[in-house]
Amino acid sequence: MNTNTAHPDIDGCTSICGDCAAGYRRALREGGLSGTVPHCLIAFGLLRKLDGSPDHLPVPPSVAAITLARPIKRAIRDQRAALDTMIASLSPMETVYRHERQRHKAHVQPLIGRDVIDTAVQGALESCSEELLSAHPEGGRPSGALTDALPRDLALAGRGVRQRTIYGHTVRAHAPTLAHMERVTQEGAEVRTVGERFERLIVCDRTAAFIAVLSESGNQAYALEIREPGLIQYLTKTFEGVWERAVPVEFDTTGQRPPQLTDEIQRTILELMVRGHTDEAISKRLGLSTRTIGAHIKRAATRFGSRSRAELGFSLARTGALDTDRGRPRPPGSGAHQRGA
Length: 341
Known about the structure:
Blueprint: H1 3-6, H2 18-30, H3 39-43, E1 47-49, E2 56-58, H4 61-105, E3 108-112, H5 114-127, E4 131-136, H6 143-158, E5 162-168, H7 175-186, E6 190-194, E7 201-204, E8 208-212, E9 222-226, H8 229-245, E10 247-248, H9 262-274, H10 279-286, H11 290-304, H12 309-319
Parallel strand pairs: 4-5, 5-6
Antiparallel strand pairs: 1-2, 3-9, 4-7, 6-10, 7-8, 8-9
Helix pairs in contact: 6-7, 9-11, 10-11, 11-12
């Protein structure tokens, strides 16, 4: 410890040296010391000069300690009083903090159960007046869900609400979903598909958002209703990023379906396979059957002459087929590889 800092009266003394200890012992034996005495003994209060006498009498160490501790204890009391004052000053703010935190929590509400979720979403959609953003990561939507959604989507379009929806590429092969998409795009809605993974999302007027959450049991519908501006801004930016990379779904007057983007779907499947996902995991992420997943992988393996998933993964990595070029995977010795690209 820096005694000089803690005890200004000690004037540089930090400990009692051997000579001082010997001097103190002599003072105890002789009843005091006269003349020149060790300065440390005086600084530590172990010798005290009598008024009107040249002698310095020894003082018990316990008494010296009490004298030295007095200014320290006074400083501690002052600091404790300052601490109590600070805490008392901040105490009213604790109530403000708790109130605001509770208000903030109200901006993120859990919704448990399909009926509860549907009611909350329907209420937000009915008040939506400017923009609706939605993302559906699963494959083709059930016919019942599409039947319920069509009047709602058409009503939104009738109110002038701009609608933008993102699906996975796989919906391009799902007739009911395609029919729904064609009908809403006729009313001005915009639809795009993407091969990458994204999460289910609904954003109404950038003031209310709904995201799906996996419940602990995994078998119960669970969502969050979000009205916190910062979180909604984050979710909207995420949506916009995926939207920019997505491929527009366009219907022509001949009634011809938009292209299925089979190569893009296969590319996504192969990317997930290379990352170690099983057919079952890929199936859940893309909304395709495991049989379809296996068929895509088998088709790619045949094209590359691979006899196993590991060998196919090696071939894909060696040829760079899944690099930045978004074209379909090419087997060695074909296309750009033949040209030395």
